[in-house]
């Protein structure tokens, strides 16, 4: 065996070890208890893969002058940007950040496809790479804009959208066929790229904010698939493995999120659901609203035996997770049993509430499965709903509403319910919440951080 063969074998073994670490890291992320280790293992494996690739480039004879400077500059800028974002972005903006990461991944994969086309011509992986990568890039930017409030959260319906979609599909099909047949060249690739970019916008824009958790998961799956196609184009096994893992896990998560909302994926992609986060002034709505003071709510909480906390996006928006944890710890010191019922699509991305609570130091053991929490709800003294809306709306149990059939946390079936919310404003589904006017519900109108701090102070005064 020559020195080159030995070197090539070692690099392949390193890539194989890296791929195994990716699989193990993803497995560790199945549980919040081991997720940090899984994340660190995957990040370490990717660092090794980058180093191995750099070693391969160092031994190549075709590396152009200045390539090392460009590689080092890009790596440093990317690492610095990642570190800065990780430290500065709040949990409330994490969904937007994930969407931006999806856009970067899809865009990078598409550029790899363009570069490979320029060097070796068209192939099926190259065509799919450019197509999926471009759709992911533009679609993820639209999703991030909706989540950040730069674009309306409500569905944006284009006039003649069906005609536009048909024209785009024909353009994609024609340019792809021309490229795979060896005709068209760069103009056909440009048509494919532009049609894919516009398709990403027309795909995500008509989808309302209520479906954003599913959209984020779907775009994440697209990113992984595009990266896998880039791996096939480059003949890089690590990219293929990493992309396939992200694509597969994102697809599974998309299905789970759609099931959690009881909405078929085709209905979500059809768009037109949800109004965005449009608040209305507090008022009686369609029924009688019973307003609570801090003292009223504190009495219920302090003398309860069992409490279930139902967090929602309002908790994240107010950055009130630490105040919630302080209140829960105070209640637990009095012997109150407290657990958390987290709906799978609470917040604006999968796992949003879980990560938010973990950031505040809430033990994972206190997070109850939604089905288990619902089974115990009739024996629960108080259900404390903090900023949740559609995921606790009893209207989901009857037909004819925008949330019909969606599994919910049965907060209305507790003996008493306290809802902390700034107003009687609608959730993303755009309908009244029947929980707010239920006879056992008391509404505490305030920002979640302010309300939880007032409740904590009131409980301390009450118990001495």
From TrEMBL:
<feature type="transmembrane region" description="Helical">
    <location>
        <begin position="40"/>
        <end position="60"/>
    </location>
</feature>
<keyword id="KW-1133">Transmembrane helix</keyword>
<dbReference type="InterPro" id="IPR034300">
    <property type="entry name" value="PNTB-like"/>
</dbReference>
<dbReference type="Pfam" id="PF02233">
    <property type="entry name" value="PNTB"/>
</dbReference>
<keyword id="KW-0520">NAD</keyword>
<feature type="transmembrane region" description="Helical">
    <location>
        <begin position="97"/>
        <end position="118"/>
    </location>
</feature>
<comment type="function">
    <text>The transhydrogenation between NADH and NADP is coupled to respiration and ATP hydrolysis and functions as a proton pump across the membrane.</text>
</comment>
<feature type="transmembrane region" description="Helical">
    <location>
        <begin position="66"/>
        <end position="85"/>
    </location>
</feature>
<keyword id="KW-1003">Cell membrane</keyword>
<feature type="domain" description="NADP transhydrogenase beta-like">
    <location>
        <begin position="12"/>
        <end position="457"/>
    </location>
</feature>
<dbReference type="InterPro" id="IPR012136">
    <property type="entry name" value="NADH_DH_b"/>
</dbReference>
<feature type="transmembrane region" description="Helical">
    <location>
        <begin position="163"/>
        <end position="182"/>
    </location>
</feature>
<keyword id="KW-0997">Cell inner membrane</keyword>
<keyword id="KW-0472">Membrane</keyword>
<keyword id="KW-0521">NADP</keyword>
<keyword id="KW-1278">Translocase</keyword>
<keyword id="KW-0812">Transmembrane</keyword>
<feature type="transmembrane region" description="Helical">
    <location>
        <begin position="188"/>
        <end position="207"/>
    </location>
</feature>
<feature type="transmembrane region" description="Helical">
    <location>
        <begin position="12"/>
        <end position="28"/>
    </location>
</feature>
<comment type="similarity">
    <text>Belongs to the PNT beta subunit family.</text>
</comment>
<protein>
    <recommendedName>
        <fullName>NAD(P) transhydrogenase subunit beta</fullName>
        <ecNumber>7.1.1.1</ecNumber>
    </recommendedName>
</protein>
């Amino acid at each position: 065996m020559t020195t080159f063969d030995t070197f090539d074998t070692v690099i392949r073994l390193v890539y194989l070890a890296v791929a195994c670490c990716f699989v193990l890291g993803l497995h560790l992320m199945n549980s919040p208890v081991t997720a940090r280790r899984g994340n660190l293992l995957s990040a370490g494996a990717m660092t090794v893969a980058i180093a191995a690739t750099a070693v391969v480039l160092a031994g190549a004879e075709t590396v152009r002058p200045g390539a090392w400077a460009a590689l080092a500059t890009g790596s440093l800028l990317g690492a610095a940007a990642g570190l800065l974002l990780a430290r500065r972005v709040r949990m409330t903006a994490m969904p937007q950040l994930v969407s931006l990461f999806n856009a970067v991944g899809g865009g990078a994969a598409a550029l790899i496809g363009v570069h490979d086309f320029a060097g070796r011509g068209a192939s099926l992986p190259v065509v799919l790479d450019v197509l999926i990568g471009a759709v992911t890039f533009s679609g993820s930017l639209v999703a991030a804009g909706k989540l950040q409030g730069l674009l309306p959260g409500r569905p944006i319906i284009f006039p003649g959208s069906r005609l536009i979609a048909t024209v785009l599909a024909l353009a994609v099909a024609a340019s792809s066929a021309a490229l795979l047949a060896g005709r068209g060249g760069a103009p056909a690739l440009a048509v494919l790229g532009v049609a894919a970019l516009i398709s990403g916008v027309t795909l995500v824009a008509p989808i309302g904010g209520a479906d954003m958790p599913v959209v984020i998961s779907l775009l994440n799956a697209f990113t992984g698939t595009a990266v896998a196609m880039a791996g096939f184009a480059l003949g890089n096994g690590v990219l293929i493995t990493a992309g396939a893992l992200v694509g597969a896990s994102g697809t599974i998560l998309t299905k789970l999120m759609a099931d959690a909302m009881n909405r078929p994926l085709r209905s979500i992609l059809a768009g037109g659901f949800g109004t965005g986060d449009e608040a209305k002034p507090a008022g009686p709505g369609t029924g009688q609203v019973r307003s609570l003071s801090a003292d009223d709510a504190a009495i219920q909480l302090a003398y309860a035996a069992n409490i279930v906390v139902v967090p929602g996006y309002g908790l994240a928006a107010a950055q009130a997770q630490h105040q919630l944890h302080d209140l829960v710890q105070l209640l637990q010191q009095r012997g109150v049993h407290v657990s958390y019922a987290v709906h799978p699509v609470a917040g604006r991305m999968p796992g949003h509430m879980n990560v938010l609570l973990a950031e505040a130091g809430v033990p994972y053991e206190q997070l109850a499965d939604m089905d288990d929490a619902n089974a115990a709800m009739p024996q629960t003294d108080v259900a404390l709903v903090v900023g949740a809306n559609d995921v606790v709306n009893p209207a989901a149990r009857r037909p004819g509403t925008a949330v019909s059939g969606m599994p919910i946390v049965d907060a209305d079936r507790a003996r008493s319910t306290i809802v902390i919310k700034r107003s009687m404003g609608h959730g993303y589904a755009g309908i009244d919440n029947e929980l707010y006017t239920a006879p056992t519900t008391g509404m505490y109108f305030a920002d979640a951080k302010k309300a939880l701090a007032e409740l904590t102070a009131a409980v301390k005064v009450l118990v001495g």
